[in-house]
Write a structure and sequence with these properties.
With 467 residues, this protein is mainly α. Among the domains are: 78-191, Glutamyl-tRNA Synthetase, domain 3 (Alpha-Beta Complex); 247-320, Glutamyl-tRNA Synthetase, domain 2; 369-463, Arc Repressor Mutant, subunit A. 46% of the residues lie in helices and 10% in strands. The structure holds glutamic acid (GLU). Glutamic acid binds next to loops.
Length: 467
Amino acid sequence: MASGSEGTVVTRFAPSPTGFLHIGNARTGLFSWLYARHCGGKALLRIEDTDKARSTQEAIDVILDGLAWLGLEFDGHTYYQSQFEARHAEVAHELIARGAGYRCYLTQEELAARREKARAERRPFRIDSEWRERREGDWPADEPFVVRLKAPREGETVIEDLVQGRVAVKNEELDDFVLLRSDGSPTYMLAVVVDDHDMGVTHIVRGDDHLNNAFRQLAIIRAMGWPEPHYAHVPLIHGADGAKLSKRHGALGVHDYRDMGILPEALFNYLLRLGWGHGDKEEFTHEEAIAAFTLEGVGKSPARFDMKKLLNLNGHYIRAAGDRRLAELIAPKMGPQADVDLLAQAMPVLKTRARDLNELADGAAFLFETRPLALNDQAAALLDADARALLAGISERLHAEQDWTTGGLEANLKAYAEGLGLGLGKLAQPLRAALTGQTTSPGIFDVLALLGREESLARIDAQAGPA
Ligand code: GLU
């Protein structure tokens, strides 16, 4: 593995494949990536795939896809933790050789009995293994054992966390945790430390649910005499009710937001500004975010996820997005009849109000309806005998119209409404119902222009009654 050269910032994002890329985890990954980029350092990606049952290729791809979709490209190759198990075990044995770790032969039954005794005596349970000071000659042959760290018992461990500030823990609270299980497999606590060291990681930016682990991990690092990384423990995302974001708050995975029709740049900006601020600036390109990002700007308290804000921001990015890109994004949602060219042409009038791509696709659906159009309930109710008679008159006028443009159609129908002594709305309502099957749509002249002469007249005539 590569080692970070002196002075170069190296961060890593270390997700475990759980079946989805959690939105909170993605934000941590974003911060870790941004910090490296801001410092001109390296942003590494490590898949923590030691749980073999969960770490399917599919679960790994979900993470890789989600990160790529968000535009987070990591440096070098992706590390897979499971490939380094032999190295993790080697370090565990090196810790024993250094007198900083030990083989512990306590059985599950013995441990359970001690735990039970502590509970009965109402005192906190601490591993106090008689194997802590035993050496090689004392080891029983052929008995299963775990390797434990000889954790420090006196004094305290202090972390100057770049987000949380100074955090201290009394060492008596750190127990002799397991490094290698009895089957020889490394624990998370050991694997993370070894990989971070071997990858040359200088700054560990991760969720604050790992802050407690940092004290234990530091104990391993110090026992090995390795350089200590800087830590930045970022608060998790909470729901609008203040509780930790969970399934009951709705969608959790980055893919869910993609499927809801959120643009990646909207999610990028939303996650960036969730618990990190830079004056009043609301929108950041990747380059601007990289230039402005600092860990000092990350708030200490959990940020609250606000779907409404995300949707508003998304609507903003939809309006800013290129018409052809939007057309290409929504066409697959619309079925085989969707025509990207027509969608792109319609986009300026369609995108003015959609807050997500699904809404945009719904709003564009009328373009590709086949006749006879299905009317929704409001449209059907609106098309009473009077309205159908109006449509007959409109049809007659429009059949004679030579200038089939938004402007030409507007002039024509305005004059017609005036002649009848009606507001334009009275004309537009049945027209909209006939042309789109709905009671809301883009401006009616735009609808006529986009559908074109032939299709417009056919739709109108299909609903027109006797004049
Ligand atoms: N794999 C851990 C997780 O997904 C992160 C480990 C770490 O960042 O140290 O929560």
